[in-house]
Design a protein that fits this description.
By secondary structure, the protein is an all-alpha fold. The chain has three helices and no strands. The termini are far apart.
Length: 117
């Protein structure tokens, strides 16, 4: 048992020496960092863990901010001398049906040409 006690004391002494050495190295690093004006390694602020739901909300808020900024930076349209705003033209249902029928006919013609070949 006496042998184990001496070994334990020796290990504790080595640990104290190593700890003192690490502390002196940390002090040297701190001095160099203060001279350089930068902080390497240690930061005072811990990293935050953010849930998926919170990240989604943050992303939506950022998208809304960007949309607002884009709306604000959009150039204002110069009004015509008549004072009327430009008209957005809409297509009637019958015109849409005619265009769709013409497109179907073009596709049918193309498919028929492939089958014949």
């Amino acid at each position: 048992m006496g042998n184990l006690t001496s070994v334990l004391q020796q290990l504790r002494a080595e640990r104290k020496q190593a700890q003192a050495r690490v502390e002196s190295i940390d002090q040297a690093i701190a001095v160099i960092e203060s001279l350089n004006g930068s902080t390497f390694g240690k930061t005072n602020q811990p990293t935050r863990k953010i849930s998926k739901a919170s990240r989604r909300k943050m992303a939506q808020a950022q998208r809304a901010r960007w949309a607002k900024a884009k709306r604000a930076s959009r150039p204002i349209a110069i009004a015509k001398t008549t004072g009327s705003a430009p008209v957005n033209r809409t297509m009637s249902a019958s015109a849409r049906r005619k265009i769709a029928a013409a497109q179907r006919a073009r596709w049918a013609k193309l498919k028929a040409g492939k089958k014949a070949a």
